[in-house]
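An example makes the point: we let one protein speak, the chain in one-letter code, the fold tokenised, and here it is:
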Amino acid sequence: MPGGGHMGEHRVAVIVRHGLDPTAWERRHERGEVMDRTPYAYHLAEPAVVLEWSRDRAEHAAARWWRMSVKRLLGFDFVHVWRNRALIERADAVWTHTEREHLAVALLKVLRPRRYRSASIAQSVWLWDLWPTLSAPRRRFFRILLRRHDVEVVLSRMNRDASRAAVPGRTVVRVPFGTHFAQPAGDNEAGKPRRILVVGNDRHRDWDLMLRAATALPELDIDLLSLSENASARAWPPNVRIRGVQQADMLRTVYAAADVVALPLRPNLHASGCTVAIEALSAGLPVVAVDTGGIDEYLQDGDATLLPPGDADAFTAALADAAARGRRGDPALPARRGLSEGDYVARLVSITRSVLTRAPIPEAVQCFAPMDDERTPHHP
């Protein structure tokens, strides 16, 4: 592996998707649109490691067409990663947030193994949900690529199990995700209509389920925050307001104005909705969720009702019951369970430290508990 020395001297290349350029993100942060200075708060890893970030290249129409065509052909964004190859070459380790990036990093390693020798900590999100739909040649290709990574990180036990079964003999670690907490909700106002909050753009939101529940509960105000075309295409009843808001506004004010959070989910493997689950519990709100994808682990010990997929009657009844109770939970619960963004980043630092020093990965990175401060450089 390139580099050497103490952990705090190691370079980590952070490869995020095209559109999350850190300079543009920081401008959004300065305008108050997002809570964190960098995407996914990866900057919290410093000073334990030296971070260098992937950058978006300005694209004219032909360049964008080329990048997107290659992405459709391969199934991942190779052109974006290729443009950042110098960053990967000089890094000791690479962090990727999804398979759209880590498969491209692996292809670099296949094509030029002597040049691209950095350890790769590859996080997958949707890959194992999509795996059964892939052609046999593409699965063979992806298996070759996946074996180039030192560690695959996933956010649910179901993703972990699917990954290990599909491509055995690799190190696959389930780590709990963590995110920025929301402003806690205040006390319920007497006589005020109860407000159900629904948040999400993920492909595994069950908008038909939510539509049936919203139609059956006209007495409840439903605030639906989504940029998904699948959500906006539905004919929602008058008690539903669909809109988009900036992340910072959502965390500061939207959760605080809600009474219940609904998580209508389709069957999945990747803990779809885990970010919203953490945010809801940090606001002290009850959650009504479909029990799929490993979301139960994120909602454990919280005021959460878990229901089978597709059961609209049960989902509707649970929403009505939670709204009628108007109960507030303990907003400190996610912090006690290690679900902050700092905990998440500390888990990645710990895994990276283990890979670079060829030490066993600590069991702590897989636990729903606060991490020790792995972001402090360890000097032997």
The two ends are 19 Å apart (CA to CA).
